[in-house]
Automatic annotation (TrEMBL):
The lineage of its organism: Archaea, Methanobacteriati, Methanobacteriota, Methanomada group, Methanococci. InterPro entries: ACT-like_dom_sf, ACT_dom, ASB_dom_sf, D-2-hydroxyacid_DH, D-isomer_2_OHA_DH_cat_dom, D-isomer_DH_CS, D-isomer_DH_CS1, D-isomer_DH_NAD-bd. It catalyses: (2R)-3-phosphoglycerate + NAD(+) = 3-phosphooxypyruvate + NADH + H(+). The keyword Hydrolase does not apply. This is D-3-phosphoglycerate dehydrogenase. Its EC number is 1.1.1.95.
Length: 524
């Protein structure tokens, strides 16, 4: 008999589904000691955000196979440790998109018409019809940052209000934007300049942190309204506070904050800020659907069927996988490099396998490549099961090919194209470890690990010294360096392994050095 423990409240229909496959115990509000005791003998645990499955809790699990998180965020689970222990983690990323989109519209209307402030005034016994004059949505330009699941739902609803929509999402194709009726802008600053309302729907990553900062706010129209139902860290709250105080920004409607719950957050002292306590997914329907989706995932896994929403993928059993594993690792690194180097919507990817690898079934290698390429830009886990579907949903064409001979032996060549730019990479496996052998036809020999800076430059005496000096001035240590060139005096590349993150302003200085064409930092 399968023992299933539910430690946060989930919808009764989800409980019914679970009861069909095992013995279900519901025990909410457990303290750490109780949870450690109970987790010992169970096969499946179903949680929401309330239960924290840290390492010291999971250490007590003796036969746990599945952690099911009803909802999206998995930051309350030690995924790495769960993976080490062979525990599968599933979630339900799709369940809340409509609810969040509806809250976004609700907050947009509330901010435009001062509904919360007017309600409070009415309840104070006032009848003030002047102070709360608002603005219409009709005919206004809405800037949508991030056109994924939620962003797209917001677009559909905003169109019904007669808004013109512009979008910023460098990883979405023109075609998808066109089908949504969104004018895709290639620069976030452009979106800030033209929008009357701005709404954010991107995941919080090192790249999107403070995506709305002082510079973006300075470019905005006076009286713009900002809505954030995504993640707090996306907006620089200090800069937002100043702009709201001096009425450059008319109003902000926030469901999320840099620190949650907010402690003495000055934004909440302003009369032109309205908000909700991270309630985007708090609807009957989203919670029902989150529960049902994870319950169905649990049933599928227990029956040995493929499940779509696996966040991690622990043991890959077959022997064959063992042989392919180093190539899967290499492919994932190549995918990570591809998205970071192209940094735009990718329309087509060609993967060419050579040597012995060309004779193998490379499906899992392809899927690993897609995981690397898609994970940095998407909120939900991309895994070996759902990777091809996620790629297809984003209109990415993936082609595989083989060549029997390559100077690198068993190797993977990647050719990726998007928005009229392309990139090529070649990687191989040496002594079981991935090695990058070519970037855009330039030979290199580097371990795809850590922080790497790739510089395109003209081959001139002293270039290496100039770069080293500049980075040294900012305390950035170079751990390794390689130069690749096709001919003396021509265009070349420099690849640096660095020990520290290169800040944006230093990267700009690097790009401005004489004879440097471009510089990019990637994280592997
Ligand atoms: P998604 O993964 O479906 O879509 C994210 C989109 O952002 C993708 O289209 C991606 O291409 C784009 N993107 C990635 N990096 C970008 C960048 N640097 N610039 C511009 N676009 C970029 O995610 P989703 O399900 O739509 O979720 C969007 C946000 O909503 C996330 O931040 C998520 O945490 C948040 N969320 C909030 C609540 C809530 O309760 N308020 C609930 C669910 C989700």
């Amino acid at each position: 008999m399968v023992n299933i423990l539910i430690t946060d409240e989930i919808h009764k229909d989800a409980v019914e589904i679970l009861k069909r496959v095992g013995e279900v115990e519901i025990a909410t509000n457990l303290n750490k000691m109780e949870l450690k005791r109970k987790i010992k003998d169970i096969d499946v645990i179903v949680i929401r955000s309330g239960t924290k499955l840290t390492r010291d809790i999971l250490e007590h699990a003796k036969k746990l196979k599945i952690i099911a998180r009803a909802g999206v965020g998995v930051d309350n689970i030690d995924i790495q440790y769960a993976t080490e222990k062979g525990i599968i983690v599933v979630n339900s990323p799709d369940a809340s998109s409509i609810s969040v989109a509806e809250l976004t519209m609700g907050l947009m209307l509330s901010a435009a018409r001062n509904i919360p402030q007017a309600t409070a005034s009415l309840k104070r016994g006032e009848w003030d019809r002047k102070s709360f004059k608002g603005v219409e949505l009709y005919g206004k330009t809405l800037g949508v940052i991030g056109l994924g699941r939620i962003g797209q739902q917001v677009v559909k609803r905003a169109k019904a209000f007669g808004m013109n929509i512009v979008g910023y999402d460098p990883y979405i194709s023109e075609e998808v934007a066109r089908s949504l009726g969104v004018k895709l802008l290639s620069d976030i600053n452009e979106l800030c300049k033209v929008s009357d309302f701005i709404t954010l729907h991107v995941p919080l990553t090192p790249k999107t942190r403070h995506i709305i900062g002082r510079e973006q706010i300075s470019l905005m129209k006076k009286n713009v309204i900002i809505i954030n139902c995504a993640r707090g860290g996306l907006i620089d709250e200090k800069a937002l506070y100043e702009a709201l105080r001096n009425r450059k920004i008319r109003a902000a409607a926030l469901d999320v904050f840099e620190e949650e719950p907010p402690k003495n957050n000055p934004l909440l002292t302003l009369d032109n800020v309205i908000g909700t306590p991270h309630q985007g997914a708090s609807t009957e329907e989203a919670q029902k659907s989150a529960g049902i989706i994870v319950a169905e995932q649990v049933v599928k896994i227990l029956r040995g069927e493929p499940a779509e929403n696996i966040v991690n993928l622990p043991a890959i059993p077959s022997e064959k996988m063992g042989k392919l594993k180093p190539y899967m690792d290499l492919a994932e690194k190549l995918g990570l490099m591809t998205i970071q180097l192209l940094d735009r919507s990718i329309e087509k990817v060609k993967l060419i396998y050579s040597g012995e690898l060309a004779k193998e079934d490379t499906e899992m290698v392809k899927r690993s490549f897609l995981i690397g390429m898609l994970s940095p830009i998407l909120l939900a886990g991309v895994n070996l099961i759902n990777a091809p579907t996620v790629a297809k949903n984003r209109n990415i064409k993936v082609i595989e090919g083989t060549i029997s001979e390559s100077e690198y032996g068993n190797a993977i060549k990647v050719l990726a194209e998007g928005n009229s730019e392309s990139i090529s990479l070649v990687g191989s496996v040496i002594e079981g470890r991935p090695v990058l052998r070519e970037i855009n036809g330039y030979r290199v020999d580097i371990k795809p690990e850590g922080i790497i800076c790739i510089i395109r430059h003209i081959d001139r005496p002293g270039m290496i010294g100039k770069v080293g000096l500049l980075l040294g001035d900012y305390g950035i240590n170079i751990a390794g360096m390689q130069v690749g060139r096709k001919e003396p005096g021509g265009e070349s590349i420099m690849v640096l392994n660095v020990d520290h993150v290169i800040p944006e302003d230093v990267l700009e200085k690097l790009k401005n050095l004489e004879n440097i064409r471009d510089a990019k930092v990637i994280n592997l």
